[in-house]
Amino acid sequence: MGDPIADKPACRGGFVFLASLLLAILTAGPVRAQHLQQQVAVREITRQPIAAILETLGAGGNFHFSYSSDRVPADSIISVPAFHGSLHDFLLRLLGPGYDFKELSDYVIIRYSPNRLQPAIEIGEATDQLLVVEGRITDAQTQTGVANVSVYDQHSFASALSDGQGYFKLEIRKPDPTVWMGVSKEDYRDTTLVILMPVEVRHRNRQLTFRYYPGHDSGMPLWRTRFGRFFTNSKQRVQQLNIGAFLAEQSYQFSLLPGISTQGLSSSRTVSRVSVNLIGGHAGGVSGVELSGAFAVNELDVSYAQAAGLFNLVGGDVRGIQAAGIANRVVGSFEGMQVAGLYNATGKHITGMQLAGIMNRAGKVDGVQLAALVNLADSSDYPIGLVNLIKNGHRSLSVEGDEQGYLRLSFRSGGSVLYGIIGLGYGLAGQQLPYQVQAGIGARLIAGAPVGLDAELTGSTNTDFHRQQFRYDMALLPRVRLTPRLELYGGPSLGIVSGNGQVLAEEQPWTIRKFHDGKGAWIAGFTAGIRYSW
Fold this sequence. Notes:
The chain is mainly β. A hairpin with a 4-residue loop joins strand 39 and strand 40.
């Protein structure tokens, strides 16, 4: 297969032409660059790490540097003579010609790019609805085709990857009169082709805002998750490595499935204010509201409101409310309320509330975790669930008894304030319903040592596997610490007992008042035991 420019005719089907081209190698970022062109005066530097020099420059110019630590030798100790000139020229002196620099907002991005690309393109079709660009990307030095080069419209982020021989085909829907086409690949300097359309295209005056996410140029956090790898293919990951963490803001996007949307395959590089997925969608992020019939996958941050019939998967941070029929998974931090039918997971800090039908999981929690069964966290003061496994929390195993003669083995687990209770008991006084299961929650009202006070709400079921009797208690339990891990506790309780529609099978020793013809009663009680904590 030969060069596409030489092998293909200049006209095809009556209306194909070559566009006017302006070729520019990006060494100083966008046209509106400011930081790179500002003048800097640097005194002689003696034996300083590159990272410290960059930090000082950024602080002085009120911006930040972003770079990959495995590409920029940030820990290298160097000496630099005094300098006065543009920041761009100083960076060239500091790092050498193997790097290029561009800026977005308050960031100056440093990329290792020792090689150069040489693009050759041809326009296959050009209307106000579609622009088709074909061509080949070669290495400027070896003249061989370069595979996996990202070719993309810098406005819409419509993109394509070159094949093994360097050939590509890019389709841009509703192109602007002037198309800025980026050509990028890791370890190569970025190239921009400016295509001046020789046809009259209705001007739409579209203005896009771009977001840059520092620290994600070499990969998205979502890729480190099993589901994230499932919903992102190798082409998307290559595009990310080539283009970097630049995402375009859009007003809306609609999708049927990932890749079948108003943004096409570039949806993962856009942040929408309104996102609607009939079945599922894959986007860069949301800054507004997202509704999905089944699922939503977002590479980075989501703000304000997100709801899905099955699950939400977010690679960045979430702020607002997130709801799913089955599960929510957030790789970063969360601020707001997270609600799921079965399972919530936040990888880092959560401020607010997690509510799940079965299980919550988080890093540090400043707020409340509420789950029917299990809460997991590094730090959580207010977990509400039967089992709460908190790294810096409390766990204890106790042997206790009550006024009815039941002996229980109970497990308590939770944070510094709230904890969950589960227990199994057996009646030692010849009860007709000898087996007992107990569950509840407790709170440390006075957490001091050697004396403290707990309050507990529990529900118990007594059974012989044919009949059941239910009991609900509120207890105040003073405790005394004997050793750092061993405590004695005991105190009164007030409760209600129900025969499940039948007359109570057993007489309650401390009955206050019966009701419903002996099918229920208000009772007083007492609980005491010994507890081992760890």
